[in-house]
Each structure stands twice: as C-alpha cells, then as structure tokens.
Batch of 4 targets.
Target 1
Amino acid sequence: MTRIQTLAAGSIAVGFIVLALKYVAYHLTGSVALLSDAIESIVNVATAIATLFAISFAAQPADANHPYGHHKAEYISAVLEGVLIVVAAIAILHEAWLAYQSPRMIDAPWVGLAVNGGASVLNAIWCYVLIAQGRAHKSPALVADGRHLFTDVVSSFGVFVGIALAALTGLSILDPILAALVALNILWAGWRLMSQSVGGLLDEALPEGDLSRIRAVIAANADGAIEAHDLRTRQAGRMTFVDFHLVVKGQMSVTEAHDICDRLERAIKAEVQDALISIHVEPDDKAKHSGIVVL
C-alpha cells in the first residue's frame, strides 16, 4: 500500500471515530445543530471510502486502454465528494426547518459540546495532515478530502459557539439557525470543490507561475536549438503533462536533435516532479519567431 493509500485508509478510520463522537453529542443534547454536524460526518466517511477507491485506481500503471494512466480518477472522486456535500447540506436544511418550526431547549449542552469539541480537534489535526501530504504527493483527492474536513472544523467551531450562547441565553431558536448556517457553509465548500475538480477534468493549463518556470528551463537548456513554441501543459493527479514544438536547424542530424530533447527532458523533470514530456522537433523553416527563444 502506498503512502497516499495509507492516508486515504486512515481517513476512513478517523471519519468513523468522529462520526461516533458527534452522534453521541447529538444523542446527549438533541441539538439539531449537532445533528447537522453528525450528518456532515456521514458524508466524510462516504467520501473517504470513495477517495480510497479513486486513489487505488489512479495508482494503476498505464495500459493499452489507458495509455496516459488512470490519474484522473482522483478528480472524479473529488467531484463525487462535492455532490455528496450538497446532498448533506439539503438534508441539514430540512432538519433545521423542522426544528425552526418547533424549537426546543438543548439537553446537557456542556457535556455534548465537550464530546463534539474532541471530535473537532481530531478532525482539525487530520485535515492538516491530509492537505500537507496531498500537496506533497500531488494528490487532488487527498487535498479535496482535507479541505472538506477543514470546512467541517469551521462549521463545528461555529456550532460550538452558537450552542454555548443558546445555553447561556436560553434562546432555543439559535439551534436551528446555526444548523442552517452550517448547511450554507458546506454548500459553498461543495461548489468550490466541484469547480476545482472539473478544471482538472477539463485539462486546464498549469498556473502562470509554473508555466514561467518551465519556459525558463527550456530557454536555458535548449542549446543548439533555435526556439520552442506552442507550449501546452495540463495536470492529471500527480502527473504533469508538458508538450511543445522545438525548432532546430534543418541540416541538424536526428541524433543531435534527440540529444537536445533528452537534455530538455532531464532539466524539466528536475524542475517539475512526475512530468511526462513530449517534444515535436521541427526544421528552421517552421519557426514562428515567437514563444520561447533559446538563450
């Protein structure tokens, strides 16, 4: 099992522990806001399972049917996670509306908050681990899972403050209002998550900062060539795809042109981890006198 798969499996275990703690908190208090927190944890468990399957599938090597690999499976997982977040938000809004129509006082609020707070601390630690490791290993599924957990942490903090105020003031109406706010917050998080993942599925180019670094590497390591143009990039999971046209002198031998390409590939891979590079060599009459000028 790879490091990424181990972390994904850990998310399932953490998700079940947090779900159990939050359900206990809801059972002790009867708070619909804490129920909303528990419902979001159900989504956490479901998405953690989906993430593990997606990461395991994405780790499979390229084959005849998938010559570029299976890396985009992680984006599909992230989109699914966004959809599940939206479904959870709708369920929470329904419970909040019912509680708003018939508000009731919260039972044992401080005990329930203590249990829920412990679950939130565990979530906060784990979301930090997921985001840091997901970025380090270029795993959009782990990063998406971590960001979702961070949304859960923020929601739980708001619930904690609101229920404490409800307990101190006796305003039971605060409970369903808090649940509705939690739902709106995770709706926004789900929308952001899906939009970012769709960008990966649609082969968006790398950020401009990364493109500038690649252009600089090409310009500095293409000695013997004339120019490079039509640079294209995309990200698929941990893999970065780079392709461009390299213009060389028409009388240059195939071996010389190939040596330049090898040198460029080594330099780009040293700058961009897990890069898959394709270079199309062209004679000088194909020069566009634009793009990347060789230093």
Target 2
Amino acid sequence: MVFTTLSGRERGCSAIVRGDHFTDRGGSTLAATPFFGRTGTLLDSIAALAAAPLTSIAERLRDATAPYVASSALLIFTEDCTGRPHKKAGSEAIISRTSIAELDKLRATLADEAPWLGEAEIAGRPRHVLAMKYTPSQALLVLTDPDPAAELMPDEALGMVGYLWGLTARRIQEKVADAPPSYLLESRAASAERVRVTAELVDQYSTVLETILAAVRSTSLNDKEARSSVTDLTAKSLIGLRTLNDRTTDLVEEPVGRAFERLRDDLRPLTRFSGIDVQFVEPPRNGRALPGEVAHAARAIVRGLVLAMMDQPDVHRIRTQWDCDGENLLVNVRDDGHGALSRESQGMARLDRQVQALTGTMQMDVIPGWGADVAVSLPLNPPELRGGNVTAWKLSPREIKVLEHLSAGERNRSIAMALNISENTVKFHVRNVLKKLAVGSRSEAVALAHSRGLR
C-alpha cells in the first residue's frame, strides 16, 4: 500500500506500510512509534471504513484520522454521490454552514493529490484547512483547524491521512458504482430534496432582487449613481443565484450520452478479453439528462446483465441499447445463447431489487435455443410520496413532532418554542432521531423524512 505525502515544507516522500513498520522510498525502516499506535488500531480503522455505509463514512474517516491530525470538522465533496455530494462530521457550526460552492472553489485550486495547507473560505469565513484531492474521482477532503500547526505537522501524519483518505474515496466510488438498492433509495430522496430546496431559494431571492431592480430603475428616484450601483449589485446577485441553480442541476444530473460513454468504458475490458462481441446502440445525444441515481443504477444493471449472460455457454454476441421516451430510461440487453439465463438466480434477483428501488420494471424473455432478452424501464422522475409512513423507525410521538419541525426547516430554538420545551431537550430528541434513522446529520434526516412523505 503506497501513499504520497507533502509536509508543511513541501517535501515529498512516499512510504509502504508492512505489518508493524513503515518503509520509505529509500528503503529505510521506521518503527511503529507511539505516534502511530499499535498496528491493530490502524487495522480497526481500515475495517471500519471498509464497512461504513455512505451516510456515516465521514464520521468513520474523522475517527480514523484523529490520532494523526485532529480537526474541528471533516468535509468530503464528491460528485460521485449525486444525491449528497458533500459528507461531513464534526462541529455543527461548521458542517451546517459549509456550502458546495465553497468546497468546489477550494477543489479548483488544487493541482494534484498533494496535501495543501492554508486558508480557505469555509462555512462563511476564512479558516485554516488541510485539503487533499483524490484524482480518479476528483473528490475533495477538507480538515478544518488541523492540529498541529502546518509548520509542525509530521510528514508521517500527512501520509497516514492521505492513505486513509485514498481508501475512503475508493470506497465511495465502489459503493456508488455497485448501486445497491439502499443507496439508490437514499440518493433519489436526497437528490429530489436538494433540487426542491435550491429551486425554492432561487425563486424566493430572485423575486426579492427583481423587486429591488424595479425600484431602483424607477425614474422617481433622484440619485442616479446610487441606482446604478444597486442595479449592478443586484444584477450580479441574480446571476449568482442562477449559477447556483445550474450547478445544483449539474451535480444531480448526467447527460444521457456521457452516461452511456461511461458504461462503454466500464465494459471495455470485457469486450477486449472475453472473446464475446459486446455491441452498443447509443441513445439519442439530445435525450433528456438522467438523474444521477438512475445513471448509476443503469450502468450497474447493464454490467450485471452482461456478466450473467457471459456466464452462459455458447454466447458469442451481446447487444445493449439505451433509449429515452422523455419520462423513462429504456434499457435493453440481449444475447445469442441457448436461453439458459434464469430470473431466479441470485445475480438476477439482485438486479431486480435495484430496478424496484427506483420503482422501475424489468421484463425478461428467455427462448430456448434463441437466447435471452431483458428490458428495463427506469422512471426519470421520483414518484410522488405521500402518507408519512415512518413507523419502521420506531420514533416516539415527541420525536416524530421534532422530525416534522426539522422537515419544515426549523432550527432548535423555534422547535423548542413550538413544542414548549427547552433547546437542550430538542437537542436530545434530535440525537435520538439521527440514531434511529441511522444518519449523521440533520439534513440527511430531513431528506429521508421527505422521502417518506413527511413534510
């Protein structure tokens, strides 16, 4: 396992972890000092990261990196997760106020995977941060207020953080590519909620700014210079809001042509070494963009179908086709085998669960002697969810009330006033709600609540 580090003095080195010692690039051996702790602690951290669901992976990474670099908050920005592109753990004052725009801006300043130490705008003000990028997915890791100070931070500490971050970023990539039903459900709910909230904010502030523009353009106002200045400021604000809306759309959607190209890249090794002719019929380039979870699911489903068909005897050709009718992504995969594919097999059952997670359908025709033909339809729009079915979470009546207020966008103080309880009691109930929902933040709880129709 190799990782590259950069100290506060910008000196590069690499190291290989072997058992209870570290070997640097020059061959020198570094004993496992008390700074690193026992090998078992590191292995426990690696195991926790490997098993962590995406909803809690930021917390697990913060636990793993704390012995090497303590921080006030840990933030992850990854466009692999379209529903929740930033994952966070630590100080609520930081993680609740950090915006995607801030993380996106910081990421753009990093040229490579080398650790970067400096000041960046995070949670609305300049903060000292340690930032690292994971090049394969362009994911970003940010540790705020890292301790020790940059000039005292050991190369080994940076190296261990870089190593653990690489494991985490790969874990996120693999989890998203696998597209399990639980991820697809959570991602769809979060995507819909992010788009809804952003659209509401854009509409709200656009109305305000347009009203200001109308006022300052009025000929009844005397100060021409003031009107000009305010006009420029509000016009720029409008552009900024529209840019935010477009950026949100970019994060949660993927052009259908690009999604299909990624599928072809995924399957290229199979087409090269299997000896089977895998044919691709491309979708219309001007087709509707796909929600991220639909694109992830479609690629995972096609990969699974192609692998299942390749396991049959005497298959020489597999044809996969995507199309879009404006409301659904239509996927068709067929082979020229003897018709031995079984819908009851474990692999096919798993693919069917992925389809059902997005309220899609899968039809399978198997004709002995002629092969198998599988047609999948995935709705592009999330279903209308009503009824507030949250019984599976086993929340108390008071916890349900608190969750309802959270879902309405209220903060602790207003919830306390509405329910006639103290803010500390609200915090107690919020912690219980997060635990029962198995999520790591208020925003995740709100997204899940909305996915069950709770408003």
Target 3
Amino acid sequence: MDLTIQHLRCFLAVAEERHFGHAAARLQVSSSALSEQISSLERRLHRPLFRRSSRSVELTEHGHDLVPLARQALEAMDEVVTWAKGEVAEPRLRVGLMVSSPRFRAIMATAARRLPHVRWQIRQLGFLRCSDALAGGEVDCAFVAEIGRNPAPAFEAVPLWEEGCVLVTPSGHPLAGRSSVRLADLAGETFISVEDNEVSERWYSALSAEGSGPRLLPVARNFEEVLELCGAGQGVNIAGESAPETYARPGVSFVPIADSPPATTYLYLRRERRSAALDEFARIATGED
C-alpha cells in the first residue's frame, strides 16, 4: 500500500474544512488536484473516507477513524524534518486555543520570558477541534473555556480562572441597551451554537432557564463566526466577560448576565507522560512558578 504524506495532508485539510474548495485554498492546490489525491487515498485504503454531496462534505466512519492516525503520522514526519534541520534539541510547545483573552496573552508573555529556550506555536482551534487536536497529538495542551465547572472528562483539566458571563447580541436587539440581564430574560432566544452536539450540550446545559433548555442554532465553528452571525441578527450567544476586550466590534453588544454560572478556562492536558517543558508551562499558567 503506497501512501504518501501528501495524501494525509490533503485528507486532514478536507476533514477539518469540510469543504474541498476551502481545503484546496489552504493547501494552495487546485480543487481538481485535491479531489484526485482524496480519490487516490480512498482507492489505496479500499475505504470511502467522505460522503460528498453538492452542498456538504462529511466524514464516513472510516474517515473519523483515520483522523487521529493521520495527525500522528504528520506529527512524526514533522519531527523527522525538525531533526534533519538540527533543531531536535530545541524544545517545542504547541498551545491550542479555543478563544483568546487578555489573561491568555499574559500567560504566554510570562512563559516566553521564563522559557526562552522553548519554540512556541499557538494553534487557533475554535470550538470544534480542541479535543481532537489534543487527543491526536496536534497540540501539547489547550486553553478551553467552559460554562460552569464542567470540564471534558477525557483530559486532565487544570482550572486557571473564572469570570462572569455576558450576552452577545446584535446592537439593535431589545436587550442590547440593558445594564444587565438575567437568564430568565433569555427565554425564547435563539443561541448561535457550534456544530458539535457534545460541545454545545456541555456549554449550554448550565444556562437552562426555568427548566427549559435554550433553542440552539448549530452553525458556528469558532467565536469569530459567532460574532458575525450575532451581528447579522441570526441569534445571541454567551461569552466570558473579558470578550469585549478582545472581540469588540461595530454591530455587536455585550450585556452582563447577573445570574449566569461562571465561565471557567481550563488548561487541558493529555494524561500520559509529558515533557519537562510542558510541566513547567503548566506551573506558569497556574501561577505556581
């Protein structure tokens, strides 16, 4: 079976983008060349990896199984290239990020100052890829925000900070001019949510008002998309109270929620053996170092 790294790079691009055109642009190849790479990979594996239609691209069960294996293979190849360049002695930490915040930037600034020998990479993962990227070895750790104290069970979750929550609304929304709102005020609102049901349920389960769950519109992959959709009047969203410092923009308002559970940011770590540099970074993030 003759597989190449290019096959796997093309597969992962389509798996992550769920769109051949977007994946082709990301890889700087033509759509036809990308399609041929995927077809070639499927022929070699004797398995369909994607369900294609005129409107969507979805992973098959075989495709889902291949994603973490492909990431591990690409990671191993990257390590070989690093070794070949004579950089193997330089520690590298790849930090995954769900959403940015002033506290995250402060931690990274401190870590860069205290660990000057480390080569840093920050990967913007959005809402959907944090767990897969960490489990598949694409990142070494991930900063993940959750509402309440409800971390994902698959990882070691180190709590870093808590903050109040704000309602993200279009500027013309009836609640936009309020000094604050309560969860009961949000009954009947449509919440811009993410495409992953597990992530959505964990985020919104703590926000049920009077026993009824929120109405979700699962269309976003990251907070930038949430903001654009809120600004367009498609719905509202919940964010940590620090969001306006990083994400303020015309057409979107942020209103404090008086009785919301806190938004907790965790440092997610795989449970297996970790590098000394990663352990030191975790101590810096928690303020222990």
Target 4
Amino acid sequence: MPPHDGLVHLKEYDVKDSNVELIGSDLDHKVKYNSAASEPAWNDGQVGVVAGLLVWRIEDFQVIPWPKGKYGQFYDGDSYIVLHSYKVGKDSDSEKLGHEIFFWLGTHTSQDEAGVAAYKTVELDEFLHGKATQYREIQESPSDAFMELFPRVQICSGGVRSGFNHVEEKPKEETLTLLRVFKHAGAKRDSVVVHEVQPTWESLDEDDVFVLDKGDKIFVWQGKKCSPMEKAKAAQVVHDMTIAKHIDVEVISQTEARSRVIVELLGGGGQDSRTTEFRRERPVHQPVQGGPTRKQLWKLSDESGRLSFSVIKEDSSISKSDLDGDDVFLINDGGKAIWVWQGSRASAVEKAAWLKVAQAYVRQLQNTEAQSAYLIPIAKVTEGEESPAFWRTVSA
C-alpha cells in the first residue's frame, strides 16, 4: 500500500481563516474575555464598577493587589498595573465610567515581569469590553496622565522576588538612605517625585531638596535653587518618616556653612566636593530630553491590500477631523507622548499591528533623532472611548 493511501488529510485553511486573521475578531475577544473573567484580580466587585484608583504588582507571574496605603509608591525592580476609572461627562451623577490602564515598568524590572504586566493590561482591557485607554509607562519618563493620578510618586530601590530574575528589597540595617524630592515637569497638578538615589554627595543637585536618613537622625538639605513647593513636600515626607519613630530632624539650606555636614556624611570630604557645583540629572523627567519636537500624524492602513504606514501631517496642530474611523493613526505629540488611535471600523489586521508599528516607529526615532526616544510614553485609545488626556493632545 502506498504510504499515503488510507490517510484522511485535514482541510487546508486559507490564511484568511487562520488565527492571525482572527486577531481582533469577535471570537478572539470572546476567548480573551473568558480568560480575563477567571482572573481573581479583576473580580473583586470594584473593577469596572467603581470610580477611583486600583493598583496591582506583578509577583511570581501573579497580579497581586497593592496596599492602598502604598498607592503612589513603586519599587524600581518591579512592574505594576494601575487602573484609573472616572465618571464620563460633567454630570457628577453619571453612571458611565471611562477607564485608563497603565502598566508601569521599573528600571530594573525583569523581562518576565514586564511581559506579564503588558499581557495582563490587554486582558484587563478585554474585561472592560475594550473601552480602556492603555498606557505603557517607563520609570524614567512617565506620562503626564500617570503623574496626575498621584499627589506624590515615590520610587524606592529594590523589588519583589519574581520569575527568573529579582532584586532584593533593601535590608533595613543599612544606615544611609538618600531621597531626592522634586516637582515633575509637565503634569497639570503639582505632582512631586520622591526618588531614592545613591547615598553619595555626587547625587546632590542645587535645584532640589534631599532627605538623608542615617538611622538615628534625619537631615533635610535644601538646594539653593529649590522651590518653596519642593521644601513643603519634603517636610511632608519627613513627617511621614517620623510618625513611627521619634528622632531628631535638622533642616539645612545649601547656603549655610553647616550644609557641609551632610556632604561629609555622604563621603564628600575631599577637594572635589568643595569646588564642584552640585548638578545631577533628574532620574525622572518629561518630556524626553533631546527628542523630536515637532508633531506628526501617521496613518496605518491596509486599504490598498497591503499594510502601509505613512505620515500625513507634520509640524501643525492635529484635530479630530484628521482622523478616519476606517483606519489606525499614530500621533507623536512633539516627543511628549505617542498616541495610537484605533478607528471603530479599522480592520483586524490594522488593530493587531498597532503595537509593532509603534515600536518600529520609536526605533526609527532612536536611530535618526534621539537615542532616548524609547522612553517616550505610548498610549492606545479607541474611537468613542478617548480619554481626557488624549483630547488635550488632539483638538475636538
């Protein structure tokens, strides 16, 4: 018997029927929604129902609720998911909610943690029936929308043991902890960053306020060019630090001769620390330094039968009338943020390709305009469910 006789071959599927073509289809959404419906983190009775903030940390591939008392505090070795649900419209009694989902990636988070955060963000959006705006947040350059969620963002060194790689949380017996307190540029509200930095005199900067905790005493070093608001926020940080332990606090201005005490505690006893200016780039900044400053509008379309990506507007304001519900558009807000807008009638191929196209666009910026372009915040919105932050970029 010939080797193939008697075998029944399965029907060969056309590529249009493949799982790639089904991405974004009703079946695809149903499968993803069923997966999301089994995630305990989304089924606490609050997600998608109650306006406000919810935060989770990725721990050992699981989505674990973050204590409400720690909202705004992040470890640089971790990945987090933040859900902001808000009432739509000016009517305070409105029951309709809008949603923004942020997945925040610490500088030292592991690849597996970042991957889980990204995947679970998409899953959470499915749980919310695809109505959420999705943001990718990088620790060094967060979006204005993210910073406006918290009156204070505190970034600590360390992280949870998770996946293949981990960063241990800092042992409590270490004696020197140095915090840098500064206003975040760009956010509408007075958002302040409290960032743990290396406890060395070279971390000091005359534009900001620094809090040095040496265990038995806390020093506050006020840079000679710091703002009154930064001084006030540093005072709040110190107050929170001393609630649990009653220790001495000394506030010293850089202009005072005694400020040398703090410099020496941080190892600055040599001539270099006496003659140099205290200048250190802020560890969190926005917009991306040296990034593209012009606005651009790009169109992603498969109308011709092949997927194409082309610029259609540059160096001018972008309005709602520039967008077409049949396609997907990418907006570069002058290096401050990259927005991907999905039209309601865009094809499944266009919708599936948005992230790869956005990443390729960022890589092009890195190679041609700014090496730091990878830090530009990326967000995706769908037609009819745009967030307020989007409409601050695109005029209605």
